Batch of 2 targets.
Target 1
Amino acid sequence: MLKEIIFYGRGGQGGVTAANILVSAVLREGLYGQGFPFFGAERRGAPVMAFSRISDKPILRHGMFYDCDVLVVLDPKLVSLGLTKRIEVRDRGVVVVNAPDNMVLEKKAFTLKGSAKFYRVNATRIALEKKLVIAGWPVVNTSMLGAFARATGLVSINSVAEAIKEYFHGPIGETNAEAAVEAYKQTREAEVC
Amino acid sequence: MGKVVPITGNYAVAYAAKMARVQVVAAYPITPQTSIVEKLAEFIESGELDAVMIRVESEHSALAATFGAALAGARAFTATSSHGLLYMHEWVHWTSRARVPVVMAIVTRTIGTPWNIWPDHSDFMDQRDTGWILGFGMDNQEVFDLTVQAFKISEDPRVYLPVMIGLEGFILGHTTMPVELPDQKELDDWLGPRRQGYVIDGREPLAIGNLAWPEDTEEMFMDIQKAMEEAKQVIKEVDESYGKLTGRKYGGLIQCVGCSNAKYIAIAMGAWAGDLIEAVQKLREEGYPVGVARIRFVRPFPIEDLWKIINGVKGVIVLDRAISFGAWGQIYTDLVAGLAQYTRNLPVISNIVAGIGGVNVTHTDFYKLVKNFVDIVEKGEQPPVFTWYHKR
């Protein structure tokens, strides 16, 4: 089993942190993981990818990829702008979108190799409710990890919550873990047209 | 039993330096190295590491200060990349010729111009003639293990040469992977106290770097070459004893995967060797008799080990991530020169240079390249000696 995951968001939204926390979460379940940023300079606000690999065996391959088994979209605007088309979702892939409740998800905004399951959660609302806001930006990365756990079943929400708490320590860790659990509960399979 | 932590390759280096109990770190920041010395600064600040951080004004001074501390008897460490390494080049030579044990991590990055922060092996391979032992990791665990081992190798009385440990920027440097950290007490016992040939600490008058006659100078060169030969054995012993400590034994100067019954051998160094192994495993399933010899040390060059596996094969494909302009990739050049002492009937050997300036070369590329090479040789045709594998 080897799954390749792309977190697609804005520079500064915490995609890299999410990718790294995911590694920590899967280690708790005896799996192997890799997490890394898009190789290059940091670009706050620009659309950027972060990458994860999960496997039951040591991971030999390295480097970036632009087709994936799971696509996690942190910023819904990347969907409405059609930027999500840049990434190919493999057959029987999973797409998880941070989507406002009134957002209509359209298949044409994605490049699908075959069949794909779509999931949605309003992570921005969860972040605002938990007062997880930094420099005016709702912090959605930890919520999206909860959504990832629900949508893929590749890792348990407990491991995700534990990994988040270890990463951030203290009350911030607790609040982020709560956000992930809340997102886990609220994540639903989405209708796409 | 150790503890498994998810850390980047750069942090793996920092943890290794900490667990080797370095006493002095002198450093100047440069992408993609910086997070190594940032982490070490954190360790020192928090009291986890009892060391002195010397913040210098340039890489030239970084290695000069590291050298000075090592000369005075401290276990000293620094790290750099690319132009930083080029800038300290004078001290790189000076340190090895003074036979002072030092460990330096090189988070590889190409060389400008043009300005580019992405990885290849240009900066690392540029160090082949410096008298440093040159080791290179494939993943974060190996980077940790190699860095710890580097102190043991460097401080062995048969060697007393400085050691560089390479890891690609971003591909390993900024990638989080699980790393098992050994028990500190067990590691302390295994590594032992600092050893070096001589110490300048003011207790006894001693001068170094003074005028030497040509013959004396030449003898010092000859001694370094002898120490490099000795280092081959030391590296294997260290790999063996570290394997007993941690359960991880890599095979010495090279690591072989599926070499024993192979008719073709693919050779590479660094993180992309992992991608190569994955590609070759797939080719194996399809009946291609290919093995991988992964270069872990380029200096001393492991020609004896390579000959053992190359003797009798039909073809060898060498993947270099750097080039000596006007010649070929450096691993290819060293390999062919070294094989000349064993045989006049070389197998077909092809050199491919790729992945320059961070071009993303992965298991799918290696699958195509190795398959194509074997197919050509099997047809009885001669593949080109040198090719660029250039992607856009």
Target 2
Amino acid sequence: MALIRIVKRQEPLGWGSCFVLIAAVALSVLLGGAILAIGGTPPVHGIVTLFQGAFGSRWALEDALIKATPIFLCSLGVAVAFRLQVWNIGAEGQYAMGAVGATWIALSFPGAPAWLLLPGMIAAAMAAGGCWGFIPGFLRQRLRTNEIIATLMMNYIAILFLDYLVYGVWKDPASFGFPMTPVFSDQAIIGRIGATSFSWGLTHCLLLGVAVWAFMRFTRLGYEIKVGGDNVRAARYAGIPYDRLVMLVMALSGALAGWAGFLEASSTINRLQPSIMAGYGYTAIVVAWLARLNPLAIGVAAFLLAGLRVGVEGLQLDLQVPAAFGGMIEGLILLTVLAGGLFTRYRFAFKRRLP
Amino acid sequence: MTETPVIRLEGISKFFGSVRANHDISLELNRGRVVALLGENGAGKSTLMSILAGQLQPDQGVIYHHGEPVIFTSTEQAIVAGIGMVYQHFKLVEAMTVAENVYLGQSPTAWLKSREMTRVVNELAESYGMQVRPEALISDLSMGEKQQVEILKLLLRQSSILIFDEPTAVLTPHEAYNLFATMRRMRAAGKAIVFISHKLEEVMAIADDIAILKRGEVIDIMPADRVGSTAELAERMVGREVLLQVERQSVEPRQLVLTVENLQDDFLHDIDLEVRQGEILGLIGVAGNGQKPLVQTICGLRRPRSGTITLLGLEWERFFSRHRWDKSLSYIPEERQGLATCRGLDLLENFLLTTRSGFTVGPWLPRGEAGLKAQRLVEEFDIRPPDLNNLAWQLSGGNLQKLVLAREFHRKPRLIVAEQPTQGLDIAAAEDVWNLLLKAREQAGILLVTGDLNEALALSDRLAVMFGGRILATFAGGDRDMVERIPQMMAGLTQEEMT
């Protein structure tokens, strides 16, 4: 007979859940080391290289922060949808559509002044990304399609659409056949803050993070999202238009990912090219779970996972570890964190001897 | 009485955080005796039985099984010790047959011998006076029959201690009668039985010993034959005189607040009814005769297929497209947990569920004012524990119902649809609910859907009897001839058949 028994917790685990989270991440790093060992790389050296590459230099930290920007915004978006228990796996595609929308404005009106052009690009990115979120939301409520599958499939459509544009109609004639648009005009590029290497995009993250936090916490819609996420029937009982709420939240979720696409195109790459698709939309899902959908925690988690990406780049160069290793660690983190949920919701009782 | 008790609980205490659910409880269960556990909502009955069934562990105290101290750290251990529980919510596989469910998890071999299983289940059922067919699918059974399957599961395990958690709450009067017959046979077969109920008549009818719980303590325990009447029992239970008959002043009925004309769909046939402000229309019937679809249609959760519904002067579609939070429709559903509240949200958020429009400022929903209001209502309605930060699932069913009532009456409704509003409540709480409904009647028209004849008669100005998706008759509460015929009508006999 088992000596340990699992008992549901009566009181929520407070700070202990933080410890569980750290333990989960540590375990995934440990497993990552094992994978390195199997691949013939010395595991301890590999992990140390990973962390040094990620957080060991000023350059690495800056790079991590730059990569964290799109991850943060995408994650904010999926977190809003997850609150409603709608599983938006389509941040990747919504991000792609956002980049396409922003690029369309940037290429169409290159001469417009920045104060007009940048808001226009943001609006177009949000509209395009929002549309890409709204469609699966609409299909879910009207035709009862599964939003996980619909959003996932629409990612491919969006990415291929982006490819079609940069390989075809938007290809820069001066690019020697490379699939990329011309560089944006100066007015379409978000500049850097003073002499630092950080773009003003960081301030967008800050503002949007606070806005989403306030939206979820203080607005009526935020409250209704919480209700809908807890109990759909109670939401309908309370007169909450649940169908419309799902579509709205999906559009909002997509708009935030679209904004991320705008920032990446305008501030980091300064044009549209296939390499803009780096899997940020999928990392965002891991980040959202890691952060338990809390906006501030999403910021921290986005930075950490962006650091992981930077670290893996170093690992590739120094130890010839394949790039896929980053994805494996990411997946491991998601799995261990989800499994760690067992410890926060249940406690383990050791069997006492009969008196 | 020299025999060792099958189970003896000694000094059992259990805390949930700072809430004392059980305090120093001692109780004996003996072969061939029925012990009734009686108490208000949240008095600790369910906690005590969960401890006995191994789901919870006591913080203090000892359980003696045939005189030997035991610790049940899992339900499996309690089952091995012969303790079986019939829960309020059945744990059955709907797509499987009765015999398969009964044998679930206790098949002696890897191969299922279907004929053998059928035979054993049949014999078992007959020997305890149950009429459930072993080959029937669970999904085709009535609530009473499903309960019989649960009991058969325990009997097949040869459980010697059977716990019934409010077993009659889901049963028709006839099914309850059959259940008691089965319980008497079990008692004769030497089983020890625990019977949890709010219904005093039932306790008096079946119990050998009665234990009264209050705020986690056993305040009184006595043999049933020492209790003179249900009134005496009620008084001991709530510690004050309970008026089972509420004072009812007549109010002049005014304008129509609800009209249903010729409503038809798969479950409803030709439904016509009217409710006026200032009256209570008691819709009575055995559960499952179309009350649920009717209520859901009236309350906007189901679209009417044909026929018209007018609420507060507005046609159905128009009424539900312009949602008003106050002076409108309040629906008090039977399902407190699944429909009227969100289990993962705290009490304040649950309070805001239907009242949020009253506190909205532009796009914002400030919690400050709502919190003050909710706190006052929590005190006024004596919701325990009185902490708005508690999540709904941490409350007992009765306290959750009080929260729903506090919220819905706060909306000053003009039309109330109350569905089994006192089900699962103790007498004191039920009486409070009745008085609230009677008071609300001055401002509102009330459609009271209930299966409890006493409740319907005590409250209603007019009565309607529902059977098979039809309303068989509507008449004044004072119409003695018709009132006498209600039981027959509930069983589906029409007037022509009766005469």
